[in-house]
Amino acid sequence: MSAANLIQLSDEKDLRDALENKSQEVVVYFWAPWAEQCKQVESVVDDLANKYSKTQFFKVEAEEFEDISEAYEISAVPTVIIAKKAKIIGRVDGVNVAEIVKQVAASCGATNGLSEHAATAAAAADASPEALKQDLNTRLKGLIERAPVMVFIKGTAAQPRCGFSKKIIGMLNEQNIKYGYFDILTDEQVRQGLKTYSDWPTFPQLYVNSELVGGVDIVAEMIESGDLVQMVPEEAIAK
What we know:
With about 240 residues, this protein is of the alpha/beta class. It has eleven helices and nine strands. Helices cover about 45% and strands about 20% of the residues.
């Protein structure tokens, strides 16, 4: 049974009102019904909502509420945002259960009468052991599969933080290719682990249908030859 403080969003006004009117934190979980990787995070969000009963939790179907997703720069699911007065104070992209537990504990523990240490311990105890033990390779695989076209960059799509990342984002946009992205500067474990996982030592890294394409130079060559557009699935081409 879902906690009373866990709301499946049906009207974006409810989320807007919660962010504007409440002085405490609001946890927003973005998901999609087709994304298998969301199931793991959803069970953790359910557990956290029960533990932090004084905190409002929202489940937002990302593709149904495009304006909200765009406002929070949601490029792939699952993503968990912690906000207060509409300002983001915490964010976890992808299936990183331990980090979700840690950030919710740090942000919402005091509101619920728990110290950060006690909140972290309690939330970790409630999270499924299988999820918390998820190994790095499984997590990397999940990140790569978050979107048909996935790019790992420094910074965000709106604000790349290196010239090569800016260049590859520009190339994808020029080709009207829809893509998900992950900011490797937010997670050193992903940044280092992906180099070994993909056997590719530099960033950015572009994946299509979960297969590594390469970096800026290879992508530029494939665009020039027309091979990239042919490789990208039809649903990932903006009409």
